[in-house]
Design goal:
With about 180 residues, the protein is α/β, with parallel strands linked by helices. The chain has six helices and nine strands; from the N terminus they run E-H-E-E-E-H-E-E-E-H-E-H-H-E-H. The protein has a five-stranded parallel beta sheet with strand order 2-7-1-8-9, with helices on both faces. Strand 5 and strand 6 form a beta hairpin. Helix 1 packs across helix 6 and helix 4 packs across helix 5. The mean pLDDT is about 90.
């Protein structure tokens, strides 16, 4: 099963997906590919860093569930190995979630929301985002939250990361049982 965890930036998708890998058996977190250079201090396993040529070859070979170009760099979600029985967890933006839903309608889409836009702004500021950047991201987040609600099979409010991990894990567990 493909499980999509989506939501606006700063909502805690990364924390939740990392918690799911610890909490659930038989899940794998997909590692996206990108052509952008690795940032200073960024972990080597944050992405699969490849050349543009290698990425374009992978597109031609059908290796991605979805891919997009953003600010001149390519980003893609690799397709799972069809023999792999683990559920694949995708931590992606709303555009990617919409593409996955369109191409893989049986995927499970879970939208993560902040308890409020004010709390989301506090989280962004606490990680050093400027006021202009926060204002811009909040305007986008407000629109994305509404679109994600319409797309998602379930919505989880992340007011406490541990509780949110457990809520998402429960949704996945129930969906697994329903599909058997």
């Amino acid at each position: 099963m493909i499980v999509v965890v989506c939501g606006p930036g700063g909502v805690g998708k990364g924390t939740i997906t990392a918690g799911l890998v610890r909490e659930l058996d038989s899940v794998k977190l997909s590692r996206s590919w990108t052509t952008r250079p690795r940032r200073v201090g960024e972990s080597e396993d944050a992405y699969v860093f490849v050349s543009r040529l290698e990425f374009l070859r992978a597109i031609d070979e059908g290796k991605f569930l979805e891919w997009a170009e953003y600010l001149g760099n390519l980003y893609g979600t690799p397709a799972p190995d069809p023999l792999d029985q683990d559920d694949l967890i995708l931590e992606i933006d709303l555009q990617g979630a919409m593409s996955i839903r369109e191409n893989y309608p049986s995927s499970l889409v879970i939208a993560i929301e902040p308890p409020s836009l004010e709390e989301l702004a506090l989280r962004m500021r606490s990680r050093g985002d400027s006021d202009d950047h926060v204002s811009h991201r909040l305007a986008i987040a407000e629109e994305e939250i509404g679109l994600a609600r319409a797309l998602a099979d379930a919505v989880v409010v992340n007011d406490d990361s541990r509780s949110a991990v457990l809520a998402v894990a429960q949704i996945i567990t129930k969906e697994r049982a329903a599909r058997r």
